[in-house]
Specification:
It contains 9 helices and 13 strands. By secondary structure, the protein is an alpha+beta fold.
């Protein structure tokens, strides 16, 4: 699939359009999806927010749990997205920002050419008759750039939590159809340790603007029970 991602160019893609819709084929196999801190509040009303650790780099990433095991998305039914909120990471498709092969620090807008949302017949045009970017494409590009900026803020946020040792490995135990099931490999914000921070440390969190995403994370945890109910209903 990655082979069809090409840098967007008006001479090559001048006639392409993007249809409105969701990439369900991709989503239905994702039990975790990356989040940026700016969407924690909205995510918390639908899905549990957890952190996962890259064992190679040691870095943490915030994700929304959409399923209880790899390859399972409990919010896709009969190939239709059932969730009330779609995280930013999934709304970028079929566009993406990729490094310029000639200048790695520069990012280029690319398009997944074989996406079912890409068409020459219907959808939102990317370029006009003169080959100029349409307002639709400009808005999509701005959204991609904002996502990169939000991702950097989120990286700093998770690094801060890790440095303060506020992330703790946790096993979630759920009961599904009378059977206990353990969910491993996730990290949660340690509420007990958070409450034990000094006034100075707590003030630092507030000044950095991290209180809102932390509280949103904490309020998201009951959504784990929602996942259990959806799993039991299968």
């Amino acid at each position: 699939m990655a082979e069809s991602i090409k840098p967007l160019h008006n001479e090559v893609h001048g006639k392409l359009k993007i249809k409105n819709g969701i990439n369900v084929e991709f989503l239905k196999e994702q039990h975790l999806i990356p989040l940026v801190a700016h969407e924690f509040a909205r995510t918390a009303t639908e899905y549990p927010i957890v952190f996962v650790k890259n064992n190679d780099s040691g870095e943490f990433q915030a994700v929304a749990m959409l399923g209880l095991e790899p390859g399972e998305n409990l919010f896709v039914k009969d190939d239709v997205w059932q969730g009330g909120y779609l995280p930013h990471a999934a709304t970028r498709y079929p566009l993406a920002l990729v490094p310029n092969p000639q200048q790695q620090e520069q990012l280029l807008v690319a398009i997944l050419e074989d996406s079912h949302l890409v068409s020459e017949e219907e959808g939102n045009a990317l370029f006009d008759e003169k080959g100029e970017e349409t307002e639709y494409l400009k808005a999509r590009k701005e959204s991609l750039i904002r996502y990169i900026e939000f991702s950097q803020v989120t990286t700093n946020f998770t690094k801060f939590l890790a440095e303060k040792e506020l992330l703790i490995a946790q096993t979630l135990t759920l009961e599904i159809k009378g059977e206990k099931r353990d969910i491993n490999g996730i990290y949660l914000i340690d509420e007990k340790k958070l409450n034990e921070l000094s006034d100075e440390e707590f003030l630092e969190i507030r000044k950095r603007g991290y209180l809102a995403p932390i509280y949103s994370f904490l309020t998201s945890m009951p959504q784990v029970n929602r996942l259990a109910r959806l799993k039991a209903a299968l």
